[in-house]
Design a protein that fits this description.
The structure is a single chain. This protein is mostly helical. It has one domain. About 70% of the residues lie in helices and about 0% in strands. The longest helix is centred in the middle third of the chain and has 18 residues. It is globular, with a radius of gyration of 13 Å.
């Protein structure tokens, strides 16, 4: 089973701009996390999401009508996770969810 520390390790080996394929791989890993792992390691989870958001700023134009579906699903999952959070961390996760849904016109 994948844990948050496995995701962090996967990110460590990547450049800041990871490329869309790596982003998709990480999204899959993140969505397979147990919610308890997310909530008990919320700082690490935030760092992982921040890394994806940073990369997204430069991979925006790699999005297409096929891969955006995965990011929309991920965005919905982030909103679900944020429902049990409070304060600034909740706002950060909701903002990340919004960013994951932004895409160029196809």
């Amino acid at each position: 089973m994948t844990g948050i520390h496995d995701v962090q390790e996967a990110i460590r080996g990547l450049p800041t701009v990871m490329g869309i394929e790596n982003e998709l791989r990480l999204v899959g890993m993140i969505m397979n996390l147990q919610e308890e792992d997310v909530y008990s390691n919320i700082g690490e989870f935030r760092d992982v999401i921040d890394a994806l958001v940073t990369s997204r700023h430069d991979t925006y134009y790699e999005l297409n009508s096929e891969n955006i579906k995965y990011f929309h699903k991920f965005s919905d999952w982030l909103i679900h996770i944020s429902n049990k959070l409070e304060g600034g961390i909740k706002e950060e996760i909701v903002d990340a969810a919004r960013i994951m849904k932004i895409h160029p016109e196809f």
